[in-house]
From TrEMBL:
Residues 37-208 form the Helicase ATP-binding domain. This is ATP-dependent RNA helicase DeaD. It catalyses: ATP + H2O = ADP + phosphate + H(+). Keywords: ATP-binding, Cytoplasm, Helicase, Hydrolase, Nucleotide-binding, RNA-binding, Stress response. Its main location: cytoplasm. Residues 6-34 form the DEAD-box RNA helicase Q domain. It comes from Pseudomonas arsenicoxydans. It is an enzyme of class 3 (hydrolase). GO terms for molecular function: ATP binding; hydrolase activity; RNA helicase activity; RNA strand annealing activity. The gene is deaD. It is found in: Cytoplasm. GO terms for biological process: cellular response to cold; ribosomal large subunit assembly; RNA catabolic process. Its EC number is 3.6.4.13. Residues 452-472 have a biased composition (Basic and acidic residues).
Length: 557
């Protein structure tokens, strides 16, 4: 076993799955993974009692992928989740772990999105189906044989499914599955209703129970910032303006992200470097030494690359990408605040990651306060403070060492000492904006201060009629266009319906769609400006809640 594979190699997983696990940054299996993976790999039914955030998705995803046959183009595993958000999260996890398994396909099946493409993906041979019970029953009414080849069933957050009233749907799904299937049930609690399901539908299940330990990180000041995924770099640059740091480590998920962010920081004059799994050991050592002695101030790293990194200078940790679990979060921010020193940890949270933030708060037993992007005045004050600090030590003997030169230059140029000082300041600050007006112009358009109701992930909320009907649209982010549909709240439309339809029919990545604002008689959606007309043509026949979407560019005259 090599050092890089850690404890996961002991499970004898398919090498392609193991390679994908390493790439995600997991180092050691969590308690639920340690106990569950061997049981599921051996084909036993299982009841797992564990909270969200303990790593349970990988606990069932890895062994199920190990048992999937990529050559068989048919559904082999069904994972049931209580909500659309969790279904998407689980499907994304499966796709991540199956990245190096050619031929393995994952489909997410949930309400609020067209049924046609979902059923087509299943019939085309997606081996992994992640679904909400209600929408899956809709598919079974169209094709009762759609699950006939499934031999692995997982009920994720079973107690939540029962709270949401899915008991009858679950019974329909159980009947549609082969009786010889393997069944795995995960639940935070085990009320009598869950035990009854287990008795009826599981065969001699093995039990795994994990007690979540509260992990304290009291020595570190923690905060989070809500930001859209495509605006993280802008947010990081804004935060760096006002954070008083000595050395800083930034965590991202991918090797490419380390290179991209380090390059953006260098372009702004920061002494930054990337640290990822592709960097040779001798280079890694040079980077760490440079961080220790002050030649570098910022390192952008993946979890694996930062393993064992202990630099006393580190005063700040930026979680630019959300960690995969609370344990990773605690491990990351522990890079600062050591040996009684003060430390500060900032976490960037995209709207869809709010759930994981709540899990982190529960596991650590601490509230992670929300902060806002610094305003122009805060940036101006910070820039002037840095300038003051850099010039103050030079003033004491400057007149005795450079006074005569100053007299000569003012005479030769024919200007006042004040004019010459101003010219030298301009040169020293490299034309950096040092007025409120100039800073306002250069500030990134990160919608951090937008009302929560304007953010697309509040999918289940209805707008407050009246106020929102009259409210003016918020400013557009660069590269986006606002589009309008005549469908609104009175048509029974929620943001999740619009989001699902556009994602499925338009073929866009989630990050490409900006704010979705549902008003009483219409809705506004932010879409990429690049290729907009082609996209609108593609969405021309799309229907939402049985009505035509008819999206058009919104002209704000």
């Amino acid at each position: 076993m090599t050092q890089e594979t850690g404890g996961f190699a002991a499970f004898n997983l398919n090498p392609n799955i193991l390679a994908a696990v390493i790439a995600t940054g997991y180092e050691e299996p969590s308690a639920i993974q340690q106990q569950s993976i061997p049981i599921i790999m051996a084909g036993h039914d299982m009841i797992g009692q564990a909270q969200t955030g303990t790593g349970k998705t990988a606990a069932f995803a890895l062994p199920i992928l190990h048992r999937i046959d990529p050559a068989k183009r048919e559904p082999q595993a069904l994972i049931l989740a209580p909500t659309r958000e969790l279904a998407l999260q689980v499907a994304t996890a499966f796709e991540t772990y199956a990245k190096q398994m050619p031929g393995v396909t994952v489909v997410a099946v949930y309400g609020g999105a067209p049924m046609g493409p979902q059923l087509k993906a299943i019939r085309n041979g997606a081996q992994i189906v992640v679904a909400t019970p209600g929408r899956l029953c809709d598919h079974l009414r169209r094709d009762e044989k759609v699950l006939s080849t499934v031999n692995h069933l997982v009920l994720d957050e079973a107690d939540e499914m029962l709270k949401l009233g899915f008991m009858d749907d679950l019974e329909v799904i159980f009947k549609a599955l082969p009786p010889t299937r393997q069944t795995v049930l995960f639940s935070a609690t085990l009320p009598q209703s869950i035990r009854a399901i287990a008795e009826r539908h599981l065969r001699d299940p093995q039990h795994v129970k994990i007690q979540t330990k509260t992990q304290t990180v009291t020595a570190i000041e923690q905060a989070h910032l809500l930001v859209h995924a495509d605006q993280k770099t802008s947010a990081v640059l804004s935060l760096l303006e006002v954070e008083d740091f000595d050395a800083l480590i930034m965590f991202v998920r991918t090797k490419q992200a380390t290179l991209d962010l380090a390059s953006a920081l260098e372009a702004k004059g920061y002494k930054a470097a990337a640290l990822n799994g592709d960097i040779a050991q001798n280079q890694r050592e040079r980077v760490i030494e440079s961080l220790k002695d002050g030649r570098l101030d910022i390192v952008v790293a993946t979890d694996v690359a930062a393993r064992g990194l202990d630099v006393p200078r580190i005063t700040h940790v930026f979680n630019v990408d959300m960690p995969y679990d609370p344990e990773s979060y605690v491990h990351r921010i522990g890079r600062t605040g050591r040996a009684g020193r003060e430390g500060r940890a900032l976490l960037l949270v995209t709207p869809r990651e709010r759930r994981m933030l709540q899990v982190i708060e529960r596991v650590t037993g601490q509230k992670v306060a929300e902060v806002r992007l610094p305003d122009a005045q805060a940036v101006l004050d910070a820039r002037i403070k840095k300038l003051t600090n850099s010039l103050s030590p030079l003033v004491a003997d400057a007149e005795s060492t450079h006074g005569e030169l100053l007299d000569r230059l003012t005479a030769d140029i024919g200007c006042t000492p004040r004019a010459l000082a101003a010219a030298l300041l301009r040169k020293a600050t490299n034309a950096q904006a040092l007025t409120l007006a100039a800073i306002e112009k250069e500030r990134p358009l990160v919608p951090n201060n937008a009302p929560r109701g304007d953010r697309p992930e509040r999918t289940g909320d209805r707008p407050d009629r009246g106020d929102r009907e009259r409210r003016a649209p918020v400013p557009l982010a660069e590269g986006r266009a606002r589009c309008r549909t005549a469908l609104g709240a009175r048509d029974g439309i929620a943001a999740k319906n619009l989001l699902g339809a556009i994602l499925n029919e338009g073929g866009l990545a989630r990050e490409a769609i900006g704010r979705i604002q549902v008003r009483d008689s219409f809705s506004l959606v932010e879409l990429p400006e690049d290729g907009l007309e082609r996209l609108l043509t593609k969405l021309k026949d799309t229907r939402v809640a049985g009505k035509q979407l008819k999206l058009r560019r919104y002209r704000e005259d």
